[in-house]
Design a protein that fits this description.
Blueprint (H helix, E strand, L loop, with lengths): L1 H15 L9 E4 L2 E7 L3 E10 L5 E9 L5 E4 L2 E4 L14 E8 L7 E13 L8 E13 L10 H27 L11
Parallel strand pairs: 2-9
Antiparallel strand pairs: 1-3, 3-7, 4-6, 4-8, 5-7, 8-9
């Protein structure tokens, strides 16, 4: 009799315990991008980020491998609510991220590879922790520029333009001095 009461109490205790679990998941589409661009070209790509977990998440975007420093994200951080069950594509609550890639200067045909990474963490104010990440493979074939001036950086272009402007100013001043009859000469003083 006592044993039955103990089992009944333990059973009721176990039934009253509610198990709470939450999952964090993140997806990205497309899963792979391959493209060809010309050296120094800037191009935008759209990635859809979605939440496959069951709690709201805060997503932070980043790039890895050879893409580091060559990409910009808009937005860099975003908050996404979970997708309804069953999950399907295209995602219902997914959000688009614009990834801008600027190809480096290259004189030869070059291939750069890396990953566009979406890292998910629990949204601010959430009582759950954890994190997850997903990556999209990114391959970019870079062709050499079509014109020689495409090899020049912005600083070099500014410097060349300043030198041309300086030469033009010198010719204009010499022409004005000649027209006015002004002569300019460097003379060494004798002691």
């Amino acid at each position: 009799m006592v044993m039955n009461k103990i089992l009944l109490i333990v059973g009721m205790f176990l039934i009253s315990i509610s198990l709470v679990s939450a999952s964090i998941g993140v997806g990205i589409s497309p899963s792979k991008v391959s493209d060809q661009v010309v050296s120094k070209q800037e191009k935008n790509y759209t990635f859809t980020i979605y939440n496959t977990g069951d709690i709201p998440v805060l997503i932070k975007m980043s790039a890895s491998d050879e893409l580091e420093g060559k990409v910009k994200f808009y937005p860099e951080e975003l908050s996404i609510i979970p997708e309804p069950e069953p999950h399907r594509l295209p995602p219902v609550n997914g959000k688009d991220v614009i990834v801008t890639v600027k190809a480096p200067v290259s004189r030869d045909l070059k291939k750069i590879t890396g990953h566009i990474v979406a890292t998910a963490g629990a949204a601010p104010g959430s009582s759950f922790g954890g994190s997850g990440a997903v990556a999209s493979r990114f391959e970019l074939q870079i062709s050499p520029p079509k014109h020689f001036w495409d090899y020049m950086t912005d600083k070099q272009i500014i410097l060349v333009n300043l030198l041309i402007l300086l030469v033009i100013i010198i010719f204009i001043v010499r022409w004005l001095m000649k027209k006015k009859g002004i002569h300019f000469a460097l003379v060494k003083e004798e002691e």
